[in-house]
Amino acid sequence: MQESLNQAKVFEMGTVVPANNITEDDFTVVSLNGKENEKIDTPKYSYWGSVAKKFLFSKITIFMLILMLVILLMSFIQPFFSGYSLSNVGNINDFKARYNWPSAKYWFGTDANGNSLFDAIWAGARTSISIGVIASLITEIIGVIIGSIWGVSKKVDRIMLEIYNVISNVPSLLIIIVLSYSFGNGFWNLIFAMTCTSWIGTAYFMRVQVMIMREREYNVASKTLGTPMRRIIIRNILPYLTSVIVTDISMALPSFISYEVFLSFLGVGLSQNVPSLGRLISQYSPYMTTYPYLFWLPVLVLALITISLYIIGQRLADASDPRTHM
């Protein structure tokens, strides 16, 4: 047996080395790195990085995002340079400045007072977008907070269900019109009229989602171990409802802008000296056949705003769902 071991040969780097010629110098001590041994080879996961990657994957989303950024920049920057005002009638006696069709000098044409429609549209878009964003934020914040409490408290559930059953059976547009007439015209009065009862729908929607999430096994285990319900809602429930909240915002934002346009078309809500897309559409509707650009250009800008906001909101809601990151 010993002779066979001595005659054994070791193959190393393509060469044959007799077994009896092996020494300690032929071996290298390899050190062990505990951190490297515990390292996981799977790719590092980042939630918000995955959201951005999924959101920017579609070319349509990128196009709508660029379009929305251009509209926002024009709406909130251009009016500061134009100084547009509905009460400006300085060119009303200048017949050459009135009813000019879109051209290189007047991109969107001029109206009966000789004012640039380009300036009027972006000043009106700033008002409409501001109302939609502020009303949506107020509705979502109040709705999410009350809905989260509503979904875990039986006492609150009994009271809020009765309130919801009463308010939900009254048309929301009717409530907004009545409150607008009651409090008078004004920017903040209109926002109050829009958000006074609109949060109840968001709260009920969040209540249903929270009731579904609270029965998950890990939430039941956390409650059994004595974790406060407030911590369960903040840490275990609301982070998983991000996509649901974004979806609700994407639907509420165009809806509030449409409410403002409709109420301004009826002459309700905003003061007479405040420009908005709804007021422009109402003011120029008689010129639909004679000077159609006065009516259709504000309608076109309104359509671009609502469509782009809705598509961006829906794509962001899909991207914020962790199930789409696989």
From TrEMBL:
GO terms for biological process: peptide transport; protein transport; transmembrane transport. It is a multi-pass membrane protein. InterPro entries: BP-dependent_transpt_permease, MetI-like, MetI-like_sf, OppC_permease. Gene3D superfamilies: MetI-like (1.10.3720.10). It is found in: Cell membrane. Keywords: Cell membrane, Membrane, Peptide transport, Protein transport, Transmembrane, Transmembrane helix, Transport. The keyword Transmembrane helix applies. Residues 125-313 form the ABC transmembrane type-1 domain. The keyword Transmembrane helix applies. PROSITE patterns: ABC_TM1. The chain crosses the membrane at residues 60-81, 129-151, 163-181, 187-206, 237-257, 293-313. Belongs to the binding-protein-dependent transport system permease family. OppBC subfamily. This is Peptide ABC transporter permease. It comes from Liquorilactobacillus mali KCTC 3596 = DSM 20444. The lineage of its organism: Bacteria, Bacillati, Bacillota, Bacilli, Lactobacillales.
